[in-house]
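protien #1 (seq + structre)
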Amino acid sequence: MLFQFSPAIQAGLAAGKYVQVLTSSGAPLSIARDATTGQFVGHAVGLLSNSGLPLNPLAVPLQLANAGTQMYQIHQMHQGFTAVQAGLQTLQASVGVLQATTAVIGVGVAAGVALSAVNLWQTLKLREDVKQLKLEVKDGFVDLRKALKDQGSEILLKIEQIAQDIKFEQHRQILIRAYGRFLEATKLIKAAMSCIDIAIRNADLANARQMLGEALADYSNPHVLSETSAPGQLRRLECAWAIEQTIAVTYQLQNESAAASDRLSHLRKRVCQDTLAVVEACESEEELDFIFPEITRIHDHDLVALESWQNHIDWERSLPESERKLLQSSNSLELESTADFNTATSVMEIVPEQTLYEDLKDKSHLSSLRDQLELLIKPNLRQEYAAYIDKQAIAAGHKALTSANLQEASNLTIANLYWYFKVRDDSEQELED
């Protein structure tokens, strides 16, 4: 994760005049300070993923992540409030788009043509159209007939068929109810932010959390999730993650940084657990074509944004009183470029995650690709895979496959080797039987 600063601060960093602030564990933060005086001099104006591309998460608004670097200004919270309001607006649009796509995915097994119509690129484009007011979110859904009219009659027919499905209509009513609660909660949060009376503000935020908890229960309903395919589950879970973020915001607005940090920590773990469950539920190549690029984006962008958000909150909590006062008195802190940080990047014609998947698909098969996705989400699994490969390699006399070489191998290599030996081992077992 790389932060971009304004040209003046970037020049100061290059000359050694300024230094980027780090957490106690060495994680970089989006704030710089004077190397001599210690004065805080400015925030980052951009954020890049580990691959060097502009960060553009699917379900995490950068405005909220950036608000984590601003809410500490207790006497000058307007900037942080503005970021939160923009973030909530983005969340509303994102949830509306994410759940609207379930009207194409449907319940149960999803058709390939339907999945391609609302893949990662299309979803990012739909979200941008909503932000630009080209599409309207109504009752938590957008008019997909209008949004996808250029994709052909087959897609429009699929939308009509799903609309007539009784099982989907039951799901749709649950989603409409959940979105309604979410929308009312965000309205109450915005109203609370304008309250001068702290008691009223806290009461409104507590009521908003109650509504968000009810919405979260609907989106995370185990019965609803069990009835849907892996892509359908992913869409509903992404909506649930948005609710979790909003709950964290309510704590942050109350200056309950420990609670906000705990909520974000829980959310990061939940995203990993949920995506692993989605991978395990994947039953076909068509479903994998849909979830692989999307989960890769979530890993490389959304989880990075959440980590950055939590790092800033935890850093502020760890500051000694003298540093807090210095931070609060930094009136010269450059915030004029923050809007650039908050501006979502445009949707690229070629999504890198899709290109990566197509490349991996040429070199692997379904089981290996699923495992590669699991290894991405849960790197500790590599130890189990490497141990199995090492054992089988020794038995087969493959001296080049040493433990040291396996540590340097890509997830592609590890998964392919695992399945090479697994298929071979299973075949030998069958012959012996």
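ok now protien #2
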Amino acid sequence: MAVILTPTKTAAINPLKLSQPLGAALAFLGVDGALPILHGSQGCSSFALVLLVRHFKHMVPLQTTAMDQIATVVGGADFLEKALVKLKARTWPRLIGICTTAVAETRDEDIAGDIINAKGARPRKLIDTEVVLARTPDFAGAMEEGWSKAVTAMIEAITLPGTQDRDPAKVVILPGSNMTVADVEHLRETVESFGLTPLILPDVSGGPDEAVRDRWIPIARGGAKVEHIRDLGAATQCIAVGEQMRRPAEALQGLTGLPYVMFGSLTGLINADRFAWLLAAISHDNTPAAVRRGRMQLQEAMLSGHFHFAGKKVAIACEPDQLLQFAQLFIGMGAVITAAVTTTGDSKVLQIVPTDTVKVGDLGDLEQLAADADLLVTHSHGRQAAERLAVPLMRVGFPVFDRIGSQHKLSILYRGTRDIIFEVANIVQATYDEPPARAPPELVS
């Protein structure tokens, strides 16, 4: 069991974590027709919007209630009501996701009551639009906790309660915030290959299509349908990926009685095997040939890649679930985790990370602990530390803004694990493995 080391500094030197409102906003963007609103000052949403745009490389729909100094003191109920009415009239979203920030939360406002009053005062103005509140103050938690709270709030506000007739072909998938667009797409394709229908919440795979539209549409397009969220209880099984999704899975089970299965990660041979066995059991069918072929390709990649992994010292700085995902893979391939840094100490998954200690800290802590590392694994803000240490950087997580195509990198199941092994092996080979020495010209006959 890993020992969790709490922060000892009064300020972050090079911040690693991102805020809860950002994670919640990203989760709401995984719903078709959704519009996330940050309830706070304009600067809060501007910072989040910059990170989202730099990461996804296209415009992202995100709004704010734009609370000013007076509203910060006396309350922001009027600002929230005006934002709901104006944005509804302008964009006609199917769902408005309210993500609270520290500006609103420090006053301990009754924001849920403010939303009820706004809907009661303007019933016609907000018709046919779900308004969901996620309490996500900046001063607590991190990105994956905001994601988890937003998904839980959507289930509790929209999903129909009570036991429903189960459809044996439908499976609810609750992916964590560390899954990319490619991961979600591959997850859907894999479930469908077993003859099942996946209901994915949130489904971020629809977002990149916005870049090629002929006009800007200021709400999320693609992703989970509100109608499908309403009928999640009609599925036969729920699969939650990541400890962060335990809370939404429990909320769904409490509302509808739908049983759930937890996966700490879908990366690695054992985790992918468990997932394939579960789908085969649900579908009562054999594993498709394409999935079996992917398993054989992963085994070959593991045989070829372990020469480059064995004994290499790796330093990782990620959100808790992603930390477990990559730490398990590197340990399984024979590498050594010399530093593990994460954003929050509240996640129970940190206790099973395969390393002696996990430091809750920032990228400054990573740089200190990774002095003898052969590889750094974190997001793009770790590039300066990698340069100073003269160590190669593998970019994972959010944000990745200095590379193109990060959202289309696969990291789960057989194919994704294979691709990660190839990526790491190529980084190590290009950095540390010297080409064979050539014979002097006079010795060449």
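The mean pLDDT is 89.
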